[in-house]
Specification:
Order of helices and strands: HHHHH
Shape: elongated
Helix content: 55-70%
Number of helices: 5
Strand content: under 5%
Number of strands: 0
Structural class: mainly alpha
Length: 117
């Protein structure tokens, strides 16, 4: 007899919600703000998916703004060094978001500007 509680019962997040949140973060890695925006507008009934799509959307906006700043700074050669840093941060945070949501955690990007609340 197995006395362990199922994962859904302990975290309170259903498997379908986890799967959509994982797809959201993986999609954000490749498609930018589009998956976060689509899920934020469509999945209004699922609080976990809505929260993670809002977080991914905030990160996409932050990443875009950082890219704009780096583009402006290419005239003084600093921006050339910022592009790889922004790309690596984007890769790392999207992977961490996918891993965190696969466990049912409420993942938050530490450096994201919270424009959508």
């Amino acid at each position: 007899m197995n006395n362990e509680a199922p994962v859904e019962a302990t975290s309170g997040v259903g498997q379908d919600s986890k799967n959509l949140a994982i797809l959201n973060w993986v999609g954000t890695l490749f498609l930018g703000f589009i998956p976060g925006l689509v899920l934020y507008l469509i999945k209004t009934d699922d609080a976990y998916v809505r929260e993670q799509s809002k977080e991914a959307l905030n990160w996409s906006i932050t990443s875009f703004l950082a890219t704009l700043v780096a583009s402006a700074l290419t005239f003084i050669a600093i921006g050339v060094f910022l592009f790889p840093i922004i790309g690596i941060c984007h890769l790392i945070f999207c992977i961490l978001g996918a891993i965190g949501t696969s466990k049912g955690d409420n993942f938050r990007v530490p450096w994201a500007i919270r424009l959508i609340k």
